[in-house]
Hints:
Blueprint: E1 7-15, E2 31-37, E3 48-51, E4 56-61, E5 68-71, H1 73-80, E6 93-98, H2 99-102, E7 106-108, E8 117-121, E9 133-136, H3 142-153, H4 155-160, E10 176-177, H5 185-192, H6 201-218, E11 220-221, H7 231-244, E12 248-252
Parallel strand pairs: 2-5, 3-8
Antiparallel strand pairs: 1-2, 1-7, 1-12, 3-9, 4-5, 4-6, 7-8, 10-11
Helix pairs in contact: 3-5, 5-6
Ligand A2H is lined by residues 6, 36-39, 42, 125-126, 129-130, 132, 134-137, 140-141, 144, 208, 212.
Amino acid sequence: EGVQPQEYTLIKMEVQKPFPLKLGPLEGKRVFLAAATLRPETMYGQTNAWVLPDGKYGAYEINESGDVFILTERAALNLAYQNFSKTPQKPSCLVELTGYDLIGLPLRSPLAVNEIIYALPMLTILTNKGTGIVTSVPSDAPDDYMALHDLNAKPALRAKYGVKDEWVPSDIVPIINIPEFGDKAAEKVCLDLKIKSQNDKEKLAEAKRLTYLKGFTEGTMLIGEFVGRKVQEIKPIIKAKLIESREAIIYSE
Ligand code: A2H
């Protein structure tokens, strides 16, 4: 972990009913996968969520109204010290889970053009960063683009993790134009750099560097309330709106 605290927006991706057996104890509660993002303005383009199959997660009560967040224990402890736990400074775990338990969960996520999206496996998720849950925006995030590419290209990978074909999004949603990279920047940069898979760490780092900076400084919105506006200008506004509407919270680590 870095020396500087990092502030993330935690996006509340609501798990749709009926719950699978494993989530039975959560019946009657509002349950969310809580995804940590640095790019709240990209939430229009969410196509799925990512979980680490072998990752350890829990379902934690985060407030008095009975809302439950699914995330790592580490994140639950941090949140408990940021006033997001039923019991102050103490995580309150209702069910212990693994990533396998989460794969295939149908979700509704704020701003997403796709009404229902699914939790899918990503093998490069770090459990010591954010919540261990990542929201997937393949138009603008090279990691997301490549993980989705792997699932689409490799039937054996889908089979290994019990991923049904209909859970895997086939279309990328264009949300931001970057003059140099077009309307699907992550796809363009991954193709240009000839990135082979989600495990191609060095090239992905370069792809992220290229898209992240340009997206922020030169990107304009193609969709939503702020269509035509600069990413740089509207990013803080979208973040504030998501917080205000209680579709997201701020989380630091
Ligand atoms: B970002 P930083 Cl559109 N393991 O959100 C791996 N990656 C994680 C993670 C974890 N435990 N937790 C969060 N992330 C991802 C959107 C996005 C992101 C876009 C473009 C770039 C981008 C949609 N995915 O990040 O190391 C999340 O993906 C580029 C770095 O703290 C989060 O923001 O800088 C970002 O990495 C946080 O990474």
